[in-house]
Automatic annotation (TrEMBL):
Name this polypeptide is given: Phosphatidylglycerol--prolipoprotein diacylglyceryl transferase
Gene giving rise to this polypeptide: umpA
Top-level lineage group: Bacteria
Topological type in the membrane: Multi-pass membrane protein
This protein's record includes keyword Transmembrane: yes
GO cellular component: plasma membrane
Top-level EC class as recorded in UniProt: transferase
Record keywords: Cell membrane, Membrane, Transferase, Transmembrane, Transmembrane helix
Intracellular or extracellular location(s): Cell membrane
Function text: Catalyzes the transfer of the diacylglyceryl group from phosphatidylglycerol to the sulfhydryl group of the N-terminal cysteine of a prolipoprotein, the first step in the formation of mature lipoproteins.
Pathway(s): Protein modification; lipoprotein biosynthesis (diacylglyceryl transfer)
Binding site for a 1,2-diacyl-sn-glycero-3-phospho-(1'-sn-glycerol): R140
Organism: Ferrigenium kumadai
One function term, GO molecular function aspect: phosphatidylglycerol-prolipoprotein diacylglyceryl transferase activity
Gene Ontology biological-process entries: lipoprotein biosynthetic process
Length: 260
């Protein structure tokens, strides 16, 4: 049985201020996005995809992640609470972000950006899809370092005790998500997108891959205590991932039909 190392969530102490590991994980995700994006541009022949566009994409994407992630958490997870305490919607320092909300925020931001640049929306999403999983991987490492979003009780040999929760061995579900949603999904998308693909195909594979991996990992992740399990014994994360898989399948079929 393993025990969570109980990392200090502050990576660097600067007098009364501190730089948190989670903030560093966000920074690492953005830097990796730019680095991989430049590599991806070098393999493509589209004249409008260049380093300047990549920098602008990151700016719009960050806005989408932050605004969508916060609003998604408010709407999907704690709507009744924030309806009663509306000013706390802006208290982002207290935590509370939703991947699925951030994902929707990024989609809206990319649609706006594509319109401004006179590009097709799916051109943009196909381009950025392989660049996203490393950021997800860094985010899950941040969750693990903070000892949050722990897993359900288990007796597997690699079970881990999170002392800040209790003394029960649990799944290290943050590391499962790091491996599946981050490392494996990146490898699949990066290799798949190395060759020209029909418009929308890479985006569809991302939706299917992330939605499927997240759905599976949720079986090992402890549900939010203020929500618990919902209909059919599924978590909120699973209910939000199902539409991603369905939309991904529909997008793949659309892509195949229009490529024929």
């Amino acid at each position: 049985m393993l025990v969570h190392p109980q990392f200090d969530p502050v990576a660097i102490h600067l007098g009364p201020f501190g730089i948190h590991w989670y903030g560093l994980m966000y920074l690492a995700g953005f830097v990796t996005f730019l680095w991989l994006g430049r590599k991806r541009i070098a393999t493509l022949s589209h004249p409008q995809l260049n380093a300047k566009l990549l920098d602008d994409l990151l700016f719009y994407g960050v806005l989408g992640v932050i605004l969508g992630g916060r609003l998604g958490y408010v709407l999907f997870y704690k709507f009744s609470y924030y309806a009663a305490h509306p000013l706390e919607v802006f208290a982002v320092w207290q935590g509370g972000m939703s991947f699925h909300g951030g994902f929707l925020g990024v989609l809206v931001a990319m649609a706006w950006f594509a319109h401004k640049q006179n590009l097709r929306w799916l051109q943009i999403t196909d381009f950025i899809a392989p660049l996203v999983p490393p950021g997800l991987a860094f985010g899950r490492l941040g969750n693990f370092i903070n000892g949050e979003l722990w897993g359900r009780p288990t007796d597997v040999p690699w079970a881990m005790v999170f002392p800040q929760v209790d003394d029960v061995p649990r799944h290290p579900s943050q590391l499962y998500e790091f491996a599946l949603e981050g490392v494996l999904l990146f490898a699949l998308l990066w290799l798949y997108a190395r060759k020209p693909r029909p418009l929308g195909m890479v985006s569809g594979i991302f939706l299917i891959g992330y939605g499927s991996f997240r759905f599976l990992v949720e079986f090992t992740r402890e549900p939010d205590n203020f929500l618990g399990l919902l209909s059919f014994g599924m978590s909120m994360g699973q209910w939000l991932s199902l539409p991603m898989v369905i939309a991904g399948i529909a997008l793949v079929r659309y892509s195949k039909r229009h490529a024929a």
